[in-house]
Amino acid sequence: MPKEDKNESYDGERYFQFAKTKYEKGVPKKALKTINMAISSNPNKFHFWLLKGNILVDLWDIEESIKCYDKAISIEPNSVVLWNRKGEAHLYNSDLKKAVDCFDKAISIEPEEALTWNNMGLVCMETGEYDKAIEYFERALSINPEFVLAWRNKGHAHRENGENNKAEECFERASSLKPDGLDFLRKQID
Asked: pTM score, two decimals?
């Protein structure tokens, strides 16, 4: 646990860094305890709330994660990452309308963000609109042709459509790319 240096102004950043390290190492309960200390030190840093929301998603406390993303958005309302994370949390809760509202907001802020288009495709996967999902995944890939998750998701949509050859092509492309999609998402809190 970081120690406070009495000679420096302290605003919780060291607690944040410690919590982030614990989160990245897969120790979410310890990360949560530490990020709460950072927030107690300074509740006005959006990235503290973002990390707490991400930790809570990993712990499947989706409702609380949404509250954290709301707090982060109140501090940094034009963050595409925050709107995507809140939308993803709603998607995990199967609240597709709220998810789409969040993704639409992210698109209005930055229409060239591949993650948002990928997320819109995930909503369509949930509703069984596989052709539309493929269009969204293709939009994401037109922005970032090396977006692993979009290739994987496009493959799943093709498989659901019975297009197994196209699905295999997408999966092969995804497996040839680096970094892994989960690493990409974790780096969004930097």
From this structure: 0.85
Predicted confidence (pLDDT) per residue in 94-131, tens digit: 999 999 999 999 999 999 999 999 999 999 999 999 99
Sequence-ordered list of residues with C-beta below 8 angstroms from that of 36, at least 6 positions apart, any chain: 52
What does 154-171 look like in DSSP terms, one character per residue? HHHHHHHTT-HHHHHHHH
Tell me the backbone φ, ψ of residue 77, rounded to 5 degrees: -70, -15
d(CA 38, CA 18): 9
Rounded CA separation 17/148 (Å): 27
Tokens for 189? 């809190």
Quick one: DSSP state of residue 3? P
Q: What per-residue confidence (pLDDT) applies to 10? A: 64
Element (H, E) at 11: none
| Long-range contact pairs involving 133-139 (C-beta distance under 8 Å, separation at least 24) | 133/157, 134/158, 134/161
